[in-house]
């Protein structure tokens, strides 16, 4: 292997492929449990930003190469003994990088499915939690080791965990650094499902098929309303639902849904 190839492998990459209307995104740095370098995070942001504007897409699948999902942000690689960054570097840079990945996965008006094997650590854990559906193998582990490593939690963990599993369990994960296996994570409501390793790909593909054949606009608006409702009153949420309903009722899929109901057949949505 050439020096350039060695360097590229060390830096890792975020690769994409199209499977019909599904965009498959792979975190590709298996030798480091797919821990995210600056280059990978920048590529991830670009990928999700482009996907948000691609009308031909109807679902996104995020996975890790090899035996693990994601070992988090690679703090060793990003703190390599070079010149000390000036004060405020994290505050300036992170909102447009690592935090932007979490925001995009959480808010993009496409359904996002993560498949998790092995470790989902730190930012990798929060990436899985920010997806709409995460399916993991029963031996997968979700871990938030921020405090164990001497710094405070980031990448949305303090927002995501209390909403998914409540404050008591969030404290266990964030303040005590407790590791959570996939079976417990599913029981807690932290993830969608835990399945045997041999069933992971089939389960995820079935879920993606269902989501990508649905009314994409209505699904995106439903996702937006769910997110909005996390910090809104009932009255505000009802108003938001009305605006979303006004939009979804103007889609071709709405007309198809009514026709299918009228004729007692399955709807054939086109995502428009």
From TrEMBL:
One Pfam family of this chain: ECH_1
Cross-referenced InterPro entries: ClpP/crotonase-like_dom_sf (IPR029045), Enoyl-CoA_hydra/iso (IPR001753), Enoyl-CoA_hydra_C (IPR014748)
Coiled coil: none
Source superkingdom: Bacteria
Enzyme Commission no: 5.3.3.18
Keywords: Isomerase
MF GO annotations: isomerase activity
SUPFAM superfamilies given in the database record: ClpP/crotonase (SSF52096)
Homology family: Belongs to the enoyl-CoA hydratase/isomerase family.
Protein name: 1,2-epoxyphenylacetyl-CoA isomerase
Protein species of origin: Mycobacterium simulans
Higher taxonomy: Bacteria, Bacillati, Actinomycetota, Actinomycetes, Mycobacteriales
């Amino acid at each position: 292997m050439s020096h350039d190839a060695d360097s590229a492998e060390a830096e890792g990459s975020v690769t994409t492929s199209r499977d019909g209307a599904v965009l498959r995104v792979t975190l590709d740095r298996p030798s480091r449990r797919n821990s995210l370098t600056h280059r990978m995070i920048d590529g991830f942001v670009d990928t999700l930003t482009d996907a948000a504007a691609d009308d031909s897409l109807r679902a996104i699948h995020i996975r890790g190469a090899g035996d693990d999902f994601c070992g988090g942000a690679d703090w060793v690689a990003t703190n390599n003994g070079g010149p000390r960054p000036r004060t405020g570097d994290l505050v300036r840079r992170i909102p447009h990088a690592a935090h932007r990945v979490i925001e995009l996965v959480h808010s993009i008006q496409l359904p996002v499915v993560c498949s998790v094997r092995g470790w989902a650590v730190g930012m990798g854990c929060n990436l899985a939690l920010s997806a709409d559906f995460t399916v993991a193998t029963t031996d997968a582990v979700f871990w938030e080791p921020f405090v164990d490593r001497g710094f405070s939690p980031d990448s949305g963990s303090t927002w995501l965990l209390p909403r998914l599993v409540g404050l008591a369990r969030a404290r266990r994960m964030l303040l005590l650094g407790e590791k959570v296996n996939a079976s417990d994570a599913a029981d807690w409501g932290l993830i969608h499902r835990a399945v045997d390793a041999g069933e992971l790909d089939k389960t995820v593909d079935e879920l993606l098929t269902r989501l990508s054949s649905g009314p994409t606009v209505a699904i995106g608006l439903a996702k937006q309303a769910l997110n909005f409702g996390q910090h809104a009153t009932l009255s505000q949420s009802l108003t938001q639902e009305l605006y979303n309903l006004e939009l979804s009722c103007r889609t071709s899929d709405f007309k198809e849904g009514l026709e299918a109901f009228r004729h007692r057949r399955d709807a054939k949505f086109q995502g428009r």
